[in-house]
Amino acid sequence: MSKNKKKADEKATKIPVESPEEHPVENEEVKKLQEELEKKQQELDDTIRLLQRNQADFENFRRRNNSVRAESYENGKRDAVSELLPSLDDFDRIVSNADKADEAWVEGVKLVYRKFTDELKKLGLSEIEAEGKFDPNLHNAVLSEAADGVESETILAVLQKGYRMGDKILRHSMVKVSE
Amino acid sequence: MGKIIGIDLGTTNSCVSVLEGGEPVVIPNSEGARTPPSVVAFKDGERLVGTIAKRQAITNPTRTVASIKRDMGSNRKVHIDGKDYTPQEISAMILQKLKQDAEAYLGEKVTQAVINVPA
User: Fold this and answer.
1) Residue of B nearest to A152 (CA)
2) Is the CB of A57 less than 8 angstroms away from the CB of B20?
3) From B107, which residue of chain A is nearest by alpha-carbon distance?
4) Which domains does chain A have, with CATH numbers?
5) How do the pLDDT tens digits run along chain A, 179 residues long?
6) Which CA distances in Å does B41 have to A74, B56, B64, B72, B118?
């Protein structure tokens, strides 16, 4: 090999290696792009998490809504009947305090009362039994009184009747109990 | 992460709610009450909380606790059936019932809640 060719070969094989410090502007750009990429990745992760949460919310909402129509009808019925309970109370008072001297009028009122209660029974209304032992699931004790010879927590009087529709209680019986 | 419930632990009544689609929804308890009373009672070895506890309060006055929040921060204890309860323990029973009602409504376990600071 000639000296000149050897020198040329040496020149050719020496590839200059550029250090990062020699191109600061490009490296700055790469760093910026990397930061932006990380930021976008974070945003994507947050969005996916939000989507998953919303999807779970929606599934729960859909499951709860499946029975909403049937429940709404029953709830509406219960609300309507609850509104009528004060009138039923008034009827009870009229009938129990009727003036016996005016029997025809009293009979008329009793007829309306029976018809009214029959219609309510058809809608599913029934009176809560309020005799014997007090049960907080069915009764609301508002008064207590000493009563000789009577077991404690026995219902002494019903101050306001309680009613239920099916297994749902519209109003608990308001009662007086023995001490 | 499950739903986070919000609880208003009141002196007389309490309330629990949850955010659904960004809107707060009040959760009714098992009896349909949206603001059940903050009352705890002990009867026949059972613990009653809420509306049912209030209904039997007159028949069981020495074992029924109401307005316990007034004693929070004090050393006063409630003595029932040979056991002492701090106001915090009684309040925890109320919170537990509210949590149970929320879980029944949501159909999932609840592990996080925001509770208002007692007034």
Assistant:
1) B59
2) yes
3) A60
4) 26-123 (3.90.20), 126-179 (2.30.22.10)
5) 555 555 555 555 566 666 656 667 778 899 999 999 999 999 999 999 999 988 888 887 777 777 777 788 888 888 888 888 888 888 888 777 776 657 777 788 888 888 889 989 988 999 999 999 999 999 999 999 998 889 999 999 999 999 999 889 999 999 999 99
6) 32, 8, 4, 18, 21
